[in-house]
Amino acid sequence: MSEKILVVDDNLDAIAILEVILEGAGYPVTSARDGLEAMQKITTEEPALILLDVMMPKMDGYEVCQAVKDDPKLNHIPILMVSAKTDPASQERGLSLGAADYLVKPIQPALVLRKVKEHLEERNPPSSPPGVPHSP
Question: What is the residue extent of each domain of the chain?
Fold first, then answer.
């Protein structure tokens, strides 16, 4: 797999856990510790998918999501918000800004991998094997 995933969180333990989960499944991972660093990496590295914490210093996850979705060069990148904020208003805010999904901390490794795979496949649907017509 060559689909680089950007993990953005101000908590090093949270980054480390996600790196172990994702790299263990074969995904290359890069990380950022705050929203400003995330925006630099997003524009220079154009990751295939972003796992984005909500509560961060300098620029929170909502602001990063908004900036990415407002940029026509970047708005195709799926963003999965990851937060300890479990209230419906926080989840709705992330989704209304264009996040593809909202995962609640503490994360569940199997769910994270399933959601990452699902959203990467939506971005790059698998091609049909030779001789098998692609269904519309």
Answer: 5-123
Rounded average pLDDT over 67-92: 95
- Which amino acid does the sequence have at 125? P
CATH number at 5-123 = 3.40.50.2300
Identity of residue 123: R
Neighbours of 31 (CB within 10 A): 19
| Backbone phi and psi for residue 35, each to the nearest 5 degrees, phi listed first | -65, -35
Rounded to 5°, the CA angle 95-97-102 comes to: 30
pLDDT per residue as tens digits for the range 96-112: 999 999 999 999 999 99
Please identify which residue in the block is written with the tokens 């503490």. Answer: 106
Q: At which residue do the structure tokens 């994360």 appear?
A: 107
